[in-house]
Amino acid sequence: MSCDHEEYVVLKERGRLVTAKCLDCEQIFTFKKEKDVKVPVIVNRRGSSEKSSVNLERDRMVVLDEILDLGDEEIEVHSIEVGNKRVKSEKASEITSIWGISLTYPKVVGASIHFPRKTASYKVIVDRETIYNVGDPIQVGATTFKVTTLITERGKRKAAYGDEIKRIYGTPSNISPLHVLEVYDGP
Q: Where are the domains of the chain?
């Protein structure tokens, strides 16, 4: 009867050479770790995209919405391409490219305030970790408004983290604001 050494404890690592002890048969064996693969990454930073890459272990599964560390910044994975297909998860060795959004830069979303005769539209900076709710009073510039709708990447929500929001809709309000959002002046 032979053992595949599927479950083991690493005893020693030297470069790519690994000495391990099998947890099933207790045999000590050595193997060579495969080289990492360099996976192309397209990083979206507030509307502009830039090519980058990340070195990953060949067998490492990459999953949508996970956070990847590129060294100088972190990205949230929004798309995984394998050939011409988009998938929800895949081994690094099979991935053609990863598309992600930089978490280093502030999250910028649209905000529309509906007045009786006009709508004011802004680009605002939201805190990624803050939960925003329908009904929350928010201040943008000199205007305070009550949130009527939150649009996220997965549709309308009654509550969402700033990181998930794409657009905020509201109507003017006199209530003291829970959140003060800065108007974004960039592109």
A: 1-33, 37-102, 107-183
